[in-house]
Amino acid sequence: MSTKAMPLSQTRSKQVESRFALLWKRIWRYRLVYLILLPGLVYFAVFRYGPLYLSQIAFKDFQPVLGVEGSPWIGLKNFDTFFKSYYFTQLLSNTLIISVAKLIFGIPPAIILAIALSESRFVRLARFTQTVSYLPHFLSWIVVFGVLLGLLSPSQGLINQAITRTGAQSIDFLTNPNWFRAVVVSSDVWKETGWGAIIYLAALLAIDPAQYEAAAIDGASRLRRIWHVSIPNIKDVIVLVTLLRLGNILDAGFAQIFALYSLPVYSVGDVIDTWVYRQGILNFQFGLATAVGLFKGVIGLVLVVVANRVAKRFAGSGLY
């Protein structure tokens, strides 16, 4: 019986060795490509996958003196505290409303800008417009807050000055609950549209010019060529960007809202991340903050998987 088992085990070991040798040969062949990928892989290993070990804090009454391993295990108590919080419904609704609004109003302007740049016959004007449009992406939200304050200040803001000159009363945009979400969404669209258009512009530039020529020969107008050639060719990119943003649907933009919001607009502007900041950082409830972060990650994963299946079924393409 052992004589029959030995050749089988040797055969399997040889197969494993041959596969390993083939894999190593392929890696060595594309060693420069893997070398370029190495910094990114190290980054994700250290800052993304490594911290997953510390996610156990979500199930513990974490005490810095005792450390991660020494802190007492409390199970799902941190999750229960968050779900039963008086502000849970308000926080979740504010987060979803702001995030979905950014998604709906953020993607179309980027696509339109990319198409406009690609269709422009004035190369220098297109380059200037592209540069000016994506520069706001590099501004911090503190700087943007200063810009918004100069525009929306009730007393000296340019917009309110124009409003008061018409005889109407000035509007306190940043502290008025009826206007705060509109300010958040519109400022995010202004800041990120140019940057988001870059990926769509790259996809448009990769389209074979012969398709446009064939459409022009068939008598298609420029608008028809955009509708029947440009948009279908960047459909996969649009789906990809939408899926990636769906994974972060519970991230309404902590830095932006933290810079813009104040006590009068907590009812419409307080999101999960700002609440976690107050509870986890200011009140030292690290376990609660970790539990909320884990909850957001799970929800994001579920949304990406579901949206990917829906996109593959109806749009014919997905993230994987």
UniProtKB/TrEMBL annotation:
Lineage: Bacteria, Bacillati, Chloroflexota, Ktedonobacteria, Ktedonobacterales
Family: Belongs to the binding-protein-dependent transport system permease family.
Protein name: Putative multiple-sugar transport system permease YteP
InterPro entries xref list: MetI-like (IPR000515), MetI-like_sf (IPR035906), UgpAE/MalFG_permease (IPR050809)
Domain ABC transmembrane type-1: 92-307
Transmembrane segments: 32-50, 96-117, 138-159, 197-216, 237-261, 281-307
Pfam families: BPD_transp_1
Biological processes per GO annotation: transmembrane transport
Highest rank taxon of the organism: Bacteria
Coiled coil: none
SUPFAM superfamilies according to UniProt: MetI-like (SSF161098)
Main location: membrane
Subcellular location: Cell membrane
Membrane association type: Multi-pass membrane protein
Gene Ontology cellular component annotations, sorted alphabetically: plasma membrane
Record keywords: Cell membrane, Membrane, Transmembrane, Transmembrane helix, Transport
Organism, scientific name: Reticulibacter mediterranei
